[in-house]
């Protein structure tokens, strides 16, 4: 069922309440998601994006109930990833010659994924498409936000920016609009989305935000591809992105660890105690890699000024869970953050040095040599961990 967004613009997407993993198993989506597709019905009828492959047949059937598919004059593909373009093969069976407007890289993406040579029309930033009734679509390339093929599309007169992945969140909702949903959920999912997907491209995003602003386009609504449509003060999410893209951090220290026999866990708790004693105003969070969601932890890293990583020594090295998570941290390309290592050992004790080396390689400023504790931490070792926490708090 299509839902009216504004004037002759309608939402024709899909709400996926059951989605719990995305990008394979790379991203957790605790609150599901939406695949937002939009239909513009002016003198020309335009479809902007489709839905994920599992819902392609349902999408085409529902769309055919709303309009004759042959009435679609143009299709805009803002991004070729399958959660946006997945219904194209099913749809193009009915309207194979319909022009598809997308970036040059999107042509490569769509051909590579679906092995079809559709009627592609390549557009660049500033290109326009007249859709009648005095309205135009203006295209804005969004390269590497978050794929090389990404773009946004702006509808004049209605002042709607169809932003694709930018400004979205994985958040299943029926209400569609930002002012109708739980604001805590909305911004928690928005920052998680940014932290886990867009952080590596923050420098590019800063330039792109400046470019969008320089176009002087009035924006009354931002229609994303996942989650809410921003209609109430839509620029608030743009302002948040500007903040998040500038080496973001809060007054927070996060301790992340894995443990074998709870010795390293005990150190984590005592380090947290020491941080709190030295600075009661700082937010301290502890996360166990064995018990916590990695994407939620990355969000906490994103918010933190300092990250403390712990692992016992095993096989002259660190636990594979810690190695994997530190690799995850590295590919996020965080800037302006500090790190410290800690861990228990029984024989050789290399884990802390390895952690510090990996975190330095990931771009973090290392605080001291770290904390090593032989065997299960006794009273003295626990006191040393508290003192270590105090040192971290003031570093």
CATH architecture of the largest domain: 4-Layer Sandwich
Largest sheet: 7 strands, mixed
* N-end to C-end Cα span: 56 Å
Q: State the shape.
A: elongated
* Number of DSSP E strands: 23
CATH names the topology of the largest domain as Metallo-beta-lactamase, Chain A
CATH class of the largest domain: Alpha Beta
> Number of helical runs?
12
Q: Strand arrangement, largest sheet? A: 1-2-7-8-9-10-11
Unreliable sequence segments: none
* Percent helix: 25-40%
Content of β-strand: 15-25%
The average pLDDT score comes to 96
Q: Name the structural class.
A: alpha/beta
The CATH homology group name of the largest domain: Ribonuclease Z/Hydroxyacylglutathione hydrolase-like
Instruction: Quickly count the domains.
Output: 2
Radius of gyration: 24 Å
Note down, in words, how this protein is organized.
This protein has 395 residues and is of the alpha/beta class. It folds into two domains: 3-244, Ribonuclease Z/Hydroxyacylglutathione hydrolase-like (Metallo-beta-lactamase, Chain A), CATH 3.60.15; 253-394, 3-Layer(aba) Sandwich (Rossmann fold). It has helices at 56-66, 82-85, 88-92, 104-114, 183-198, 202-214, 235-244, 263-278, 294-303, 320-332, 351-361, 379-394; strands at 3-6, 9-11, 14-16, 21-22, 27-28, 33-35, 38-41, 45-48, 74-76, 100-102, 120-122, 128-132, 135-141, 151-155, 160-164, 221-224, 229-230, 252-257, 283-288, 306-310, 338-345, 365-366, 371-374. The strands form five sheets. A seven-stranded mixed beta sheet has the order 1-2-7-8-9-10-11. Strands 12-13-14-15-16-17 form a six-stranded mixed beta sheet, with no helix packed on it. Strands 18, 19, 20, 21, 22 and 23 form a six-stranded parallel beta sheet that branches. α5 packs across α9, α6 packs antiparallel against α7 and α8 (263-278) packs across α12 (379-394). The chain is elongated and about 80 Å long.
């Amino acid at each position: 069922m299509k839902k009216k967004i504004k004037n002759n613009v309608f939402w024709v997407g899909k709400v996926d309440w059951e989605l719990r993993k995305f990008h394979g198993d790379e991203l957790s989506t605790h609150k599901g998601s939406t695949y937002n597709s939009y239909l513009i019905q002016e003198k020309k009828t335009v479809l902007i994006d489709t839905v994920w492959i599992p819902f392609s047949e349902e999408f085409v059937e529902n769309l055919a109930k709303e309009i004759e598919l042959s009435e679609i004059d143009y299709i805009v593909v803002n991004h070729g990833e399958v959660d946006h373009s997945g219904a194209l093969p099913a749809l193009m069976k009915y309207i194979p010659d319909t022009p598809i407007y997308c970036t040059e890289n999107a042509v490569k993406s769509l051909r590579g994924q679906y092995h079809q040579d559709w009627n592609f029309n390549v557009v660049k930033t500033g290109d326009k498409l007249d859709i009648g009734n005095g309205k135009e679509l203006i295209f804005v390339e969004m390269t590497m936000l978050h794929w090389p093929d990404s773009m946004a599309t702006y509808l004049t007169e209605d002042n709607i920016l169809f932003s694709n992945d930018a400004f979205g969140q994985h958040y299943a909702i029926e209400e569609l609009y930002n002012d109708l949903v739980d604001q805590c959920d909305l911004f928690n999912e928005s920052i998680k989305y940014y932290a886990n997907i867009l952080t590596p491209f923050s420098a590019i995003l800063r330039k792109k935000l400046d470019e969008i602003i320089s176009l002087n386009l009035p924006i009354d609504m931002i229609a994303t591809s996942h989650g809410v449509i921003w209609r109430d003060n839509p620029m608030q999410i743009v302002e948040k992105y500007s903040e998040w893209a500038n080496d973001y951090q809060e007054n927070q220290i996060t301790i992340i660890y894995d443990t074998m026999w709870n010795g390293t866990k005990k150190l984590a708790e005592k380090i947290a105690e020491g941080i709190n004693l030295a600075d009661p105003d700082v937010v301290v969070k502890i996360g166990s890699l064995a018990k916590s969601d990695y994407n939620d932890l990355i969000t906490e890293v994103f918010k933190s000024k300092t990250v403390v990583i712990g692992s016992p020594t095993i096989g002259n090295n660190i636990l594979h869970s810690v190695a994997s998570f530190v690799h995850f941290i590295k590919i996020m390309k965080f800037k302006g953050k500090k790190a410290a290592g800690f861990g228990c050992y029984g024989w050789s004790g290399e884990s802390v040095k390895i952690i510090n080396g990996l975190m330095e390689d990931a771009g973090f400023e290392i605080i001291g040599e770290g904390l090593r504790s032989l065997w299960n931490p006794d009273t003295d070792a626990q006191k040393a961990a508290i003192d270590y926490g105090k040192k971290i708090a003031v570093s």
